[in-house]
């Protein structure tokens, strides 16, 4: 018989049993009978009257234990104090588990029998499960020391001892530290440190349960083998069976002819089987030879050698292959990722992707983390070129994508950051997406930045150096400006207890490619005319928008905030200045551009400058009051607040800002928050003039526990002067009639500018309001409303309803409206449709409504009368143009052991011809074996992120 090891010290067991026997007898009798003959042995049983042990000398039973030759093991002396403790402990009765129940249930507890805390945890983490594994209470369960040095405690209905062999029978329980072994019968050899256990074996240690028929063990090292076994790993929610389980000294388990699953007892949703399986809790990983994965007893995957995780830690090995469903542009996709856990702080993932229409693509991502550095490097590319022929300008061309991110923390104040991404073409991410962690869904960042934070108790300051290029990934949009570089210093100073000083200095050099201005799309010159392949036409731009150069912006201000429990008052003075040094401008173009764009203004040729500058002082007083009262509504106590607010703002009009380029500035939309802003522009290229007072009032209902039940705010700006500074919408147009009709923007920019100029002359702003009502902490309604009383129209409106009662349920209903000027209609070739000529002979083009009017409905919800099934969907509809922007519907089956998602998606791209979009669709399948991984990778799950509140739950 092979020698195996069990984590019990045999001598301690023997001494404990012998001491208990001797202690239970009269001293004289113990002394008289302690000397046994060679053919006799001690036999002890529990007395029927419960008074203790009844012991006697009986003839020696031959063959009680078969012993094979064992290696010689040096004896260890057992301290007397330990012996005494063990003798006393041996008298303690231990509650014995019911072996048959343990073998059947494997510590699985139905949710109805869980405690309230356990039931709540199950509901949050595993809402699909009917129960969970719970290790029952037992002595020593929470022992924290070294089990090998802990005293032995043994209990049995009867025991005998002769010639170094102890035999325990009937409800045998042996415990050492946090480990425990139960059986019907045990034979323990003191000299050989070896034991045999027979009948209803139950072996426990923290997080592990093994049951079987027989066990053989080497007791001084902890090595044991259990035959015909079943096992559970509680924390991993994993169980299985094996013809033999070998538990090694290092707690690894070697299983013969074994199975492994995370499904609960009685459920064989999925199961991994192998000729031999090794589970290593110390690394959190398992291996299997001749591994077969079955789903509902149907083989779906085979590997001669398989790595798989048994917890959440990272491990090297092939991940499961991916079949990502079908997509119109890629076909069927198959992935086989390989994860390389190089070190605790380094890893890499290699993902070969086969797309039936595109070819073979390989992605590689490397990540690292050190004490001061963290980052990642990624590269992806088609091997052998793009194989899609139809309507593909990249046929047989190499297509690739790279990204790199790095962050260095030199010390607590100083850091540096790199964020770089690049692609072979603008359509790469649309065509292939990426599993790489790139940081932008719009233009790709190509940036390096360093920042230093300084200060003390009275001042805080920050210095930043940033070099930032942006690669345009939209083939129908202008290239953005690059900042090469941007240097910024900002901070604040608490000059006195009341006076605060703020400052900002920013120097930026703006540059971009010569051909940056998107003009139109035309049939690709390299392909036959009957194809649908288009190419974008770019040019160098026109007028003031051609500008490149440097901008220096300075801002400093001083405020004197006064705060009381009943209100606040904050006067502030501020000075802003912006200065330019420009190039790449043509004087005649700039002057024509400004004269065509700023209607009603006079520009002299002598006004032209390549170094415009603007300095604007500003003064403001912001004030507010706070009233509250206690009230009771519908049997609920509230604090009802009334918070009026008033802000006066003055900034004089400074002429000549039309010569300032538009590097990073835009007109901001109007909302309730706009009432309190100092500048109606984003960026520094326009410094707004103002002579106005903003009035607003907010009211809230707040419960005693701080929960805000309702908030409503409404306000308006009253203007004392017309506003003079604005950004014309049709800047950069070569004239009122484009040389090529496809150069014409989609919107009627002349009408858009006329509306803007009218708004600048109005004596009041639109009325802006916000309303938020929280029905509960999981259900809310929000409304934003902007009413233009001067034109009797709704400028903006948004209504959003959200309901998320738990992790499985979310419902979102949204509606948005924005009043916009009309746009021009396009035919299928992208041409504007001419309807006639005006009195000057200029063409008149067909126009249509361009208001933003869209609905967005999304949900994820369990299907009634089922525990495991959920439905999910999203529908975005453009009411103005009567088209579906996105349709998505799917179902999800989630259980304790596996999860399946199947959904269909139909969508149009934002770059499509708005009047004649191309509908695209795809079917996506994802299969996740809980505790083992995904058989289908991402499978389009990024599209589900648009369902607000939906959580991708995978383990």
Total beta strand runs:
55
Level-2 CATH architecture of the domain at 10-97 and 136-234: Sandwich
The end-to-end distance, rounded to whole angstroms, is 42 Å
Mean pLDDT: 83
- Overall shape: elongated
- In CATH, the homologous superfamily of the domain at 10-97 and 136-234 goes by the name Lipopolysaccharide (LPS) transport protein A like domain
CATH class category name of the domain at 10-97 and 136-234:
Mainly Beta
CATH topology of the domain at 10-97 and 136-234, anyone? lipopolysaccharide transport protein A fold
**Number of helical segments?**
8
Rg calculated over all Cα atoms: 39 Å
Uncertain segments: 1-40, 60-98
> Structural class from helices and strands?
mainly beta
Report the portion of residues in β strands.
over 45%
The helix content is: under 10%
Mind explaining what this structure looks like?
It is a single chain. The chain is mainly β and 955 residues long. Among the domains are: 10-97 and 136-234, lipopolysaccharide transport protein A fold (Sandwich), CATH 2.60.450.10; 250-312, no CATH class; 853-946. The chain is 8% helix and 50% strand. It is built from eight helices and 55 strands. It has a 26-stranded antiparallel barrel. Strands 1, 2, 5, 6, 7, 8, 9, 10, 11, 12, 13, 14, 15 and 16 form a 14-stranded antiparallel beta sheet that branches. A hairpin with a 4-residue loop joins strand 24 and strand 25. Helix 1 (10-23) packs across helix 3 (80-90). The longest helix has 14 residues, at 10-23. It starts with 9 loop residues before the first helix and ends in a 21-residue tail after the last strand. Mean pLDDT is 83; it is low at 1-40 and 60-98.
């Amino acid at each position: 018989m092979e020698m195996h090891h069990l984590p019990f010290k045999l001598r301690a067991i023997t001494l404990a049993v012998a001491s208990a026997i001797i202690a239970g007898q009269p001293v004289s009798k113990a002394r008289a009978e302690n000397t046994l003959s060679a053919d006799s042995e001690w036999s002890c049983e529990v007395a029927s009257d419960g008074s203790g042990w009844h012991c006697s000398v009986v003839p020696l039973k031959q063959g009680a234990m078969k012993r094979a030759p064992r290696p010689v093991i040096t004896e260890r002396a057992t301290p007397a104090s330990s012996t005494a403790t063990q003798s006393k402990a041996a008298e303690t009765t231990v509650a014995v588990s019911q072996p048959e129940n343990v073998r059947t249930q494997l510590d699985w507890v139905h949710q109805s029998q869980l405690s309230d805390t356990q039931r709540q945890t199950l509901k949050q983490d595993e809402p699909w499960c009917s129960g969970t594994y719970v290790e029952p209470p037992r002595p020593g369960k929470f022992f924290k020391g070294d089990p090998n040095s802990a005293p032995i405690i043994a209990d049995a209905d009867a025991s005998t001892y002769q010639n170094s062999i102890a035999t325990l029978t009937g409800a045998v329980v042996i415990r050492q530290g946090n480990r425990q072994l139960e059986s019907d019968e045990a034979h323990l050899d003191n000299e050989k440190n070896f034991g045999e256990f027979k009948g209803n074996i139950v072996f426990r240690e923290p997080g592990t349960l093994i049951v079987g028929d027989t066990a053989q063990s080497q007791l001084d090292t902890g090595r044991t083998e259990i035959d015909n076994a079943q096992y559970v790993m509680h924390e991993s929610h994993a169980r299985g069976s094996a013809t033999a389980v070998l538990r090694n000294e290092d707690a690894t388990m070697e299983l013969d002819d074994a199975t492994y699953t995370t499904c609960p007892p009685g459920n064989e949703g999925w199961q991994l089987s192998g000729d031999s399986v090794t589970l290593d809790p110390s690394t959190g990983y398992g291996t299997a030879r001749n591994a077969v994965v079955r789903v509902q007893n149907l083989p779906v995957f085979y590997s001669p050698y398989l790595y798989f995780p048994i917890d959440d830690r990272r491990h090297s090995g092939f991940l499961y292959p991916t079949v990502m469903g079908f997509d119109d542009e890629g076909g069927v996709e198959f992935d086989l990722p390989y994860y390389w856990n190089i070190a605790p702080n380094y890893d890499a993932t290699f993902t070969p992707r086969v797309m039936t229409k595109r070819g073979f693509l390989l992605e590689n991502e490397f990540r690292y983390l050190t004490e001061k550095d963290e980052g990642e490097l990624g590269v992806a590319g088609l091997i052998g070129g793009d194989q899609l022929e139809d309507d593909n300008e990249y046929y047989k061309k190499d297509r690739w994508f790279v990204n790199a991110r790095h962050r260095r923390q030199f010390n607590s104040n100083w850091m540096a950051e790199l964020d770089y991404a690049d692609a072979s073409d603008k359509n790469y991410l649309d065509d292939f997406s990426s599993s790489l962690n790139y940081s932008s869904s719009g233009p790709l960042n190509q940036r390096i930045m360093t920042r230093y934070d300084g200060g003390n108790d009275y001042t805080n300051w920050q210095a930043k150096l940033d070099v930032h290029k942006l690669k345009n990934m939209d083939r129908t949009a202008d290239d953005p400006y690059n900042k090469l570089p941007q240097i910024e210093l900002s901070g604040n100073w608490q000059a006195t207890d009341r006076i605060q000083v703020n400052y900002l200095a920013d120097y930026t050099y703006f540059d971009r490619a010569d051909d940056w201005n998107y003009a139109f799309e035309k049939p690709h010159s390299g392909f036959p005319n009957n194809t649908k392949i288009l190419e974008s036409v770019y040019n160098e731009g026109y007028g003031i928008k051609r500008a490149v150069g440097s901008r220096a912006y300075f801002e400093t201000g001083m405020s004197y905030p006064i705060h009381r429990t009943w209100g606040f008052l904050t006067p502030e003075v501020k000075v802003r200045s912006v200065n330019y040094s420009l190039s790449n401008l043509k004087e005649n173009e700039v002057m024509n551009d400004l004269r065509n764009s700023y209607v009603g203004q006079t520009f002299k040729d002598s006004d032209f400058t390549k170094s415009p500058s603007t300095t604007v002082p500003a003064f403001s007083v912001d004030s507010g009051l706070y009233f509250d009262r206690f009230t009771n509504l519908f049997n609920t106590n509230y604090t009802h607040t009334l918070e009026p607010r008033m802000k006066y703002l003055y900034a004089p009009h400074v002429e000549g800002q039309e010569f300032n380029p538009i590097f990073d500035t835009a007109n901001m939309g109007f909302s309730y928050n706009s009432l309190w802003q100092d500048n109606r522009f984003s960026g520094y290229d326009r410094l707004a003039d103002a002579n106005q007072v903003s009035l607003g009032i907010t009211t809230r209902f707040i419960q005693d526990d701080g929960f805000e039940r309702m908030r409503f705010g409404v306000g308006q700006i009253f203007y004392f002067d017309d506003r003079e500074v604005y950004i014309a919408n049709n800047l950069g147009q070569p004239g009122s009639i484009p040389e090529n009709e496809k150069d014409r923007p989609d919107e009627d920019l002349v009408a858009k500018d006329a509306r803007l100029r009218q708004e600048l002359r109005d004596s009041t702003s639109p009325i802006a309001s916000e309303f938020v009502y929280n029905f509960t902490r999981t259900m809310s309604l929000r409304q934003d409303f902007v009413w233009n009383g001067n034109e009797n129209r709704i400028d903006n409106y948004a209504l959003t309803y959200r309901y998320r009662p738990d992790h499985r349920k979310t419902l979102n209903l949204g509606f948005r409206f924005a009043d916009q000027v009309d746009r021009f209609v396009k035919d299928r070739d992208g041409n504007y449709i001419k309807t006639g000529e005006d009195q000057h002979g200029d063409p008149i083009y067909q126009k249509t409504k361009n208001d933003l009017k869209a609905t967005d409905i999304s949900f994820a919800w369990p299907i009634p009368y089922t525990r495991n099934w959920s439905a999910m969907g999203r529908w975005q509809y453009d009411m103005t143009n009567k088209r579906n922007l996105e349709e998505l519907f799917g179902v999800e089956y989630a259980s304790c052991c596996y999860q399946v998602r199947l959904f269909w998606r139909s969508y149009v791209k934002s770059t499509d011809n708005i009047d004649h979009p191309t509908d695209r669709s795809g079917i996506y399948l994802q299969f996740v074996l809980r505790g083992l991984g995904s058989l289908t990778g991402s499978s389009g799950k990024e599209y589900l992120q648009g369902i607000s509140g939906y959580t991708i739950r995978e383990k």
